[in-house]
Amino acid sequence: MSAVFREFLKKIGSGVHTGKDLTREEAAIATRMMLQGEATPAQIGAFLIAHRIKRPTGAELAGMLDAYQELGPKLSPLGDDRPVLVMGCPYDGRSRTAPLAPLTALVLAAAGAAVILHGGDRMPTKAGIPLVEVWQHLGVDWTDLSLEQVQQVLAATNVGFVYLPRHFPLAQGLVPYREQIGKRPPLATVELIWCPYAGEAIVCSGFVHPPTESMMREAWHLLGYPRAITVKGLEGSCDLPRERTNIISIYKNPQFSRLRLDPHDYGVAAANVPLDNHFPETMQAIIAKQSSALLLSLIWNSGFYLWQANICPDVTSGMTKAETLIRSGAVAERLTKLQKYVGGGL
Q1: Do residues 305 and 317 make contact, with C-beta atoms less than 8 angstroms apart?
Q2: CB atoms within 10 A of CB 173
Q3: 84-341 belongs to CATH 3.40.1030.10
Q4: Percentage of the chain with pLDDT > 90?
Q5: What's the predicted TM-score (pTM) here?
Q6: Please, is 241 exposed, middle or buried when counting C-beta atoms within 10 Å of its C-beta (0-12, 13-18, 19+)?
Q7: pLDDT digits over 213-257, tens only?
């Protein structure tokens, strides 16, 4: 048992009247001790559920991210002026709506922006389809690549993927606790705002509950992120919904601005595309330039991010460019190039 960790646990687990928040430094130490196995399994489980009940502060999230930045993998700066977007989506995946992030990454890459995604395999509590499986349906398997190989793929194709089991085994070691405590721990919020890139990036984070967004804002400010975006997206992802107004925050250190994007204003209002057994074939149909409801969702989502990546001056022109890239075959060409490099063409 770690006596040091026990004091952190006592501090956050003492209840409403006597419990206290951790400082940023304390949160960093506690997270390092969990990642490195210095705390016992009983202590780790108790900490994760107590911290969830208490709710983390922005300072605590910043400290936890300090530990992730210290112990986790980082892709090196590309060394040019390409905008790099890091998209944070829930690691426990999607179960109701079709995921768009990998397809959006292909559109952005074809337009000249670089995109980094990250995540693991199916994990509790949702055990939905993770991003790595979506990529596999597209013929791209990131699971066997070293971080150095991912770096080469990113430089060559504008797309990279940090795979938790291979590239950050310390964090992967905490995944079983999600099943054991039966709830998403605060680490699930850390994953949404983690930036496994050593250069300047635009960090895009999905969220569901408004308090989460407030915590993210404070953490970004403390961490000194230059640019970040929050999206109240589909199932907590970065994907823009089509059936309601999008609630978005644009962070340009140190200022935040609120943005509301109504899909009705852009002619794309409709029910969100469900995740079904035909999803892999639907993605392939888009690559083959065939129209579908998912195609319109992709154009909507990509249009927003092309604007935020400074590729296009606004959402409307971004949507036009996204459709042009898809229908011209440029996105299909980007996927073919990615398949070649990830499949051994380094």
Answers
A1: no
A2: 16
A3: yes
A4: 92
A5: 0.96
A6: buried
A7: 999 999 999 999 999 999 999 999 999 999 999 999 999 988 889
Which residues, listed in sequence order, are joined to residue 261 by a DSSP beta bridge? 246
CA distance 27 to 62: 8
Structure tokens at 230: 């929050």
Instruction: Quick: pLDDT tens for 283-340.
Output: 999 999 998 999 999 999 999 999 999 999 999 999 999 999 999 999 999 999 999 9
| Separation of alpha carbons 290 and 185, rounded Å | 40
Q: At what angle do helices 315-327 and 293-308 cross, to 10 degrees?
A: 120
Helix orientation angle between 330-342 and 279-287, rounded to the nearest 10 degrees: 120
> Residue 274: CA atoms inside 13 Å, Cβ hemisphere, count?
3
Q: Distance (Å, rounded) from C-alpha 307 to C-alpha 317?
A: 8
Q: Where are the domains of the chain?
A: 3-54, 84-341
Q: What is the 3-state secondary structure (H, E, C) of the chain?
A: CCHHHHHHHHHHCCCCCCCCCCCHHHHHHHHHHHHCCCCCHHHHHHHHHHHHHHCCCHHHHHHHHHHHHHHCCCECCCCCCCCEEEEECCCCCECCECCCHHHHHHHHHHHCCEEEEEECCCCCCCCCECHHHHHHHCCCCCCCCCHHHHHHHHHHHCEEEEEHHHHCHHHHCCCHHHHHHCCCCCHHHHHHHCCCECCCCEEEEECCCHHHHHHHHHHHHHHCCCEEEEECCHHHCCCCCCCCCEEEEEEECCEEEEEEECHHHHCCCCCCCECCCCHHHHHHHHHCCCCCHHHHHHHHHHHHHHHHCCCCCCHHHHHHHHHHHHHCCHHHHHHHHHHHHHCCCC
Total residue count of the chain as it appears in this document: 346
pLDDT of residue 65: 98
Report whether 5 contacts 13 (CB < 8 A): no
Residue 60 contacts residue 21 (beta carbons within 8 Å): yes
- Average confidence (pLDDT) over 124-129: 96
CA distances from 201 to 154, 173, 189, 229, 239 (A): 14, 27, 19, 11, 18
Please give the single-letter amino acid code of residue 297: S
Residue 229: name the closest of 305, 119, 321 by CA. Answer: 305
